[in-house]
Design a protein that fits this description.
This protein is α+β, with helices and mostly antiparallel strands and 246 residues long. It has two domains: 101 residues, Ubiquitin-like (UB roll) (Roll); 137 residues, Fumarate Reductase Iron-sulfur Protein, Chain B, domain 2, CATH 1.10.1060. Helix content is 36%, strand content 14%. The chain has ten helices and seven strands. The chain has a five-stranded mixed sheet, with helices on one face. A hairpin with a 2-residue loop joins strand 3 and strand 4. Helix 2 runs parallel beside helix 7, helix 7 packs antiparallel against helix 8 and helix 7 crosses helix 10.
Length: 246
């Protein structure tokens, strides 16, 4: 009986406690229908090298934990089919421009610190209604794309401004800022705009669109950032007109 065909995975390895420099190890994994990169990594972990480190959670492209750099592109390992690469060879690495904790697992502390800065929650300043704060289907549809962001970090990793400005909020945080600003139930527009309009916010975006190309959920963070720029500019203009008329 012939052996099943195998796929070759060239996997990034780096343990800061032991290695002076990163390197790649190559593993062969039996091919089968529906095999994802994440499942292939589990095969390596369970049958070939138990020291391999990577991050995962839902396995359903919802949590964003398994974002990696696979064959030169940002992808979610849990939804990337090994069979999609006809050569049968894959190079799997961590997301670039993040500190590597070990192998494919990166340190996202700064990413989430910046996310927390934009107040990622609804703010209600008026008295609560008897039942709930109603939102129409049309109002919800206006933020559908931004709500779909799973905070995987791909856009952040791909952004040249993030690479050069350690305090830049980044496309994911700014997309979420617009998600809450545009939510019909939120009542903190002024405060949110003040946060994102600072020197490390929306005006540091150079509209390169790397973030839109990197996003595995097909979200365009650049569009949200442009909306924030528009609203910020209108706010400043309105304030100037009021001062001028007094």
């Amino acid at each position: 009986m012939a052996e099943p065909a195998k796929s070759s995975l060239k996997v990034f390895r780096f343990d800061p406690d032991r290695d002076r420099e990163p390197h790649f190890d190559t593993f062969e994994v039996p091919q089968r229908e529906g095999l994802t990169v994440l499942e292939a990594l589990f095969d390596i972990l369970e049958t070939q090298d138990g020291s391999l480190a990577f991050r995962y959670a839902c396995r359903g492209a919802v949590c964003g934990s398994c974002a990696m750099y696979i064959n030169g592109a940002y992808r979610l390992a849990c939804q990337t089919q090994v069979a999609a690469f006809s050569s049968g060879e894959l190079t799997v690495g961590p997301m670039p421009h993040f500190p590597v904790i070990k192998d494919l697992a990166v340190d996202m502390t700064e990413f989430f610190r910046k996310y927390e800065r934009i107040m990622p929650f609804l703010v209600a300043q008026s008295a609560p209604p008897e039942k709930e704060r109603v939102q129409t289907p049309e109002a919800r549809e206006a933020i559908d794309e931004m709500v779909d962001c799973i905070l995987c970090g791909c856009c952040y990793s791909s952004c040249p401004t993030v690479w050069t400005d350690k305090e830049y909020l980044g496309p994911a945080a700014l997309t979420k800022a617009y998600r809450f600003l545009a939510d019909s139930r939120d009542e903190a527009a002024g405060e949110r705009l003040s946060i994102v309009a600072g020197g490390d916010g929306i005006w540091r975006c150079h509209t390169i669109f790397n973030c839109a190309e990197a996003c595995p959920k097909r979200i365009n963070p650049t569009w949200s950032i442009q909306q924030l720029k528009r609203k910020s500019a209108l706010r400043r203009l309105s304030s100037w007109l009021i001062r001028s008329s007094t």
